[in-house]
Design brief:
By secondary structure, this protein is mainly alpha-helical. The protein contains 8 helices and no strands. It has 2 domains: 1-94, RNA polymerase sigma factor, region 2, helix turn helix motif (Rna Polymerase Sigma Factor, Chain: A, Orthogonal Bundle); 103-184, Arc Repressor Mutant, subunit A (Orthogonal Bundle), CATH 1.10.10. The protein is 68% helix and 0% strand. Helix 2 packs across helix 3 and helix 6 (128-139) packs across helix 8. It is elongated. GO terms for molecular function: DNA binding; sigma factor activity. Belongs to the sigma-70 factor family. ECF subfamily. Pfam families: Sigma70_r2, Sigma70_r4_2.
């Protein structure tokens, strides 16, 4: 029998290990996917995931039920991962091609003709700032104002980086499609 999120949260508030384990099992893989998009390695994503759950368990009193708990937890995962990314910024931000299965596949887009590995490779080739803004906006659903606050940049810079990331990615995808078409 699967417990509801509210039941698990109540158990976590009371410090019950079984409820904490249940919440981890319920949200762990989803939040790991978030962490992988922002951390430069799987190991750091795992660290970010652990820190995320520590924050979730110690800040449950801050959850105000103003939306789904999962969205609140996801926001903690994003900010925790970004904080780790800032600490290791000189190494850049990337996903390994063998981690592509952890990233949700986009539907109904020009990316449909790419394998997950090709898509990850194209995303990894973007400059880190562009890639981060693209992830936050297109995947996480943050507004440009929120992205600016998270990254310490202006809203205009966020919009500009997203636009440049899209143009760069589109150009590379068209070039790859042209090369693939010429080899067929």
């Amino acid at each position: 029998m699967t417990e509801s999120i509210d039941t698990l949260l109540e158990g976590c508030r009371r410090g019950r290990p079984a409820a904490q384990r249940g919440l981890y099992e319920r949200l762990g893989s989803q939040l790991m996917g978030v962490c992988l998009r922002y951390c430069p390695s799987r190991e750091e994503a795992e660290d970010a995931l652990q820190l995320t759950f520590v924050k979730i368990f110690t800040r449950l009193d801050q959850f105000r039920h103003q939306g789904p708990f999962e969205a609140w937890a996801r926001r903690i995962a994003v900010t925790t991962s970004l904080n780790l990314w800032h600490q290791h910024q000189q190494r850049g931000l990337h996903l390994d091609a063998d981690q592509a299965h952890d990233v949700p596949a986009p539907g109904g887009t020009p990316f449909d003709q790419l394998s997950a590995e090709d898509l990850i490779r194209q995303l990894n080739a973007l400059p880190p700032g562009y890639r981060t803004v693209l992830n936050l906006y297109a995947i996480e659903g943050y507004s440009h104002a929120e992205i600016g606050e998270l990254l310490g940049i202006s809203e205009g810079t966020s919009k500009s980086q997203l636009s440049r990331a899209r143009r760069l990615l589109e150009g590379r995808l068209h070039q790859q499609a042209h090369i693939s078409h010429c080899h067929d």
